[in-house]
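For reproducibility, we list the full input for the uridine-5'-diphosphate-glucuronic acid complex.
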Amino acid sequence: MKITFIGHGYVGLVTGCVFADFGNDVYIIGHTKEKIERLKKGDPLIYEPGLAELLKKNLQAKRIHFTLDFENAVSQSDVIFITVGTPPKPTGEADLTAVFDVSRQIAKFLKKNLTVISCKSTVPVGTNKKIETIINKHKPKSAEIAVASVPEFLREGTAIHDTLNPDRVVIGSNSKKAIEILLKLHEPLNGKRIITDLASAELIKYTANAMLATKISFANLISFYCEKTNADVESVLDAVGLDRRIGRIFMNPGIGYGGSCLPKDVKALIQIGKNLGVNTNFLNSLEEINSLAQKNFVQKIKKYLPGKKLAVWGLSFKPNTDDIRESPALNILYDLLEAGFQITAYDPVANENVKKIFNNQIKFAKNIWATLKDADGLAIFTEWNEFKQVDLTKLKKYLKHPIIFDGRNIYDPLLLKKLGFKYFSVGRKTI
Ligand code: UGA
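The corresponding predicted structure, in tokenized form, follows.
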């Protein structure tokens, strides 16, 4: 099939590369010349494991094309995916400006008897209907469209694997033809198929992300109880998680959820609830607990670091990405800088992005060891693999004081005790 993606962020670029790899002819439309030129040369613009290789392979095979021009791509495409951002407005409501702008652009150049317009951007209930209305208003009379909501569930850091192995492919549409075409397109992918209406598909995405945020905030809430009672949060959650109705996955306590999705989508769901007159207290609590998790961690550092020099490992909002949007690390850094701490940080791929925000307020190191010079202690914000099995004896020698604040519970407290560290983690006894 000929497919167009509008937008080359995580969703558009990764899904585009995967569909190109299946042999489809894929166009990806952007709006910044410089970025399109880099993409054409095989630079994916983001750090995502395996993506550069997949992009280069499909560029070489001429199955993927990057362009600023809507006309050529849109007029030929069987399916057009809208994959533009829906960032939060100051109120928390999703900003749909880009979605509606590209809908008008698409409409102008439609030519085929039937083009499926498939929205993958996370949008509030009712948005796909509005997309349909806008396109029908601006399209040529002879061109027909069918609108579908096909939400995306990939995670950053494992985006290619997730795209190839989704738990489910959700297709929401009133058009049998659109469903048929999209089922055909998704045929090579694993996962159950859920065929539903537009509103349900739109709500599935917010529900999934709010449920994930719930699991994390619940784990963090229980970690607060554990810290007050000397209980061990990992044991509690391990035991509770063995109940198959509950499950242990995605219940890791720490310094909270970040990224461009969970925080934004919880906020948007709160706004949607307010507009609909639905009680949003539960969702408000998720946000409150998330920010408390960060504040608790900062308090520990402020109270127990025997000096003002702190080494920091990990800045991205999760491992295997250079994305720092809404990274818990950023809020914590702001608080620590305000309190007069001097920080030397290292992240395997996110240093440059954080540098753009903090400039020379923070020192950046090229590796973990370089952060430790004169450091009074170490704080871990992101659970990158390379931190998990470091030589702890060497680490102890490098630190001025053998003290670790672990925001992701990556070490065994008993081992650290044996080695003579003072070790603060989340929801576990301090040793
Ligand atoms: C999330 C969802 O997991 C995807 O299914 C969805 O497609 C995506 O949002 C989206 O809407 O586009 P992502 O933001 O890439 O994916 O990352 P997650 O793996 O969900 O992690 C989000 C945050 O939660 C990270 O800061 C992570 O450190 C934190 N987290 C995750 C925890 O604190 N504890 C956990 O147990 C799991």
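The mean pLDDT is 97. The longest strand covers residues 168-173. Both points were considered when choosing residues for closer inspection.
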